[in-house]
Amino acid sequence: MSWDTSTLCAQLRELGVQPGDAVLTHSSFKSLGPGNGGPTEVVKAILDTVGPAGTALFPTHTWVDAGPDSPPAFDVLNTPSAKVGVIPEAARLWPGAIRSLHPTHSVAAIGRDAKWFTEGHYAGGICGIGSPYDRLCDYNSGNGYILLLGVDHERNTSLHMPEELLRIPDALDGSGICRLTDYEGDEHLRVTEFHSWRHRNFMVLDKDLDRDSIQVCGFVAAAHTRLVNARRLREFALHALRTNANYFWAD
Fold first, then answer.
1. Is the Cβ–Cβ distance between 103 and 52 less than 8 Å?
2. Distance CA 110, CA 117 (A)
3. 48: which residues sit within 8 A by CB, 6+ positions away?
4. Beta-carbon count within 10 A of 239 CB
5. pLDDT in tens, 2-60
6. 3-state DSSP call for residue 148?
7. pTM score, two decimals?
């Protein structure tokens, strides 16, 4: 089935995205199949669906090869995203997009509350308190969502958040000093933490999220898609990790 912007909007609404929502999208453009448009049309479809009262967020990460022994230099205007696909890169370049200053896990936001989501996210923790991932959970009485467009929970950065909040052993791999260049071209040195490279099995929670109606599954074009309530996901993951700190690493 070929897609265009209006098709994507209709399918996103059917999945449950409403005007005024805040939606953080992890994505695979190829998963959509053939269509009448590129990644910018996907960004437009998400913006049209959340409307002028909503906010669209995208991961513009730059964590590749970063760690305590190789802290990155990050320029908010000029450092491209990496390993997150072409849709977030289109969002990073979108007129009016605001990108957070975090050196490894920045987020680009477009819409009414873009500044609120991104301000203060520049170093220290990655996905913890005050980050866009955390603020999404508290947005407008539970109207913050994670859209997994053609990808699954292995790409869901928000699942690192409960690890950080609970300081799960082996989830973090130390800290280092990163060089940040802000929107004015000024440079800053900031200490930031790094996720460990130990593999997690984030899909361990997929069936439970279905069971508890924390996520809704469907298709957007040819892409199998999950729409996840961010607040309820945080509650579920915090409970699971408090019960078993190795929940994401269980066989």
1. no
2. 10
3. 5, 9
4. 12
5. 899 999 999 999 999 999 999 999 999 999 999 989 999 999 999 999 999 999 999 99
6. strand
7. 0.96
Instruction: Quote the CA–CA distance of 175 and 148 in Å, as a whole number.
Output: 29
Token pair recorded at residue 149: 């467009």
Question: Which tokens sit at 192?
Answer: 């930031």
Beta strands in 80-236, from DSSP E residues, in sequence order: 98-99, 107-111, 144-149, 172-181, 187-195, 215-220, 223-229
Q: For tokens 């467009």, what's the residue?
A: 149
SS3 assignment, position 88: helix
Q: Which residues partner with 88 through β-bridges? A: none
H or E segment and range at residue 13: helix 5-15
Which 3 state secondary structure label does DSSP give 220? Answer: strand
pLDDT in tens, 103-147: 999 999 999 999 999 999 987 789 999 999 999 999 988 899 999
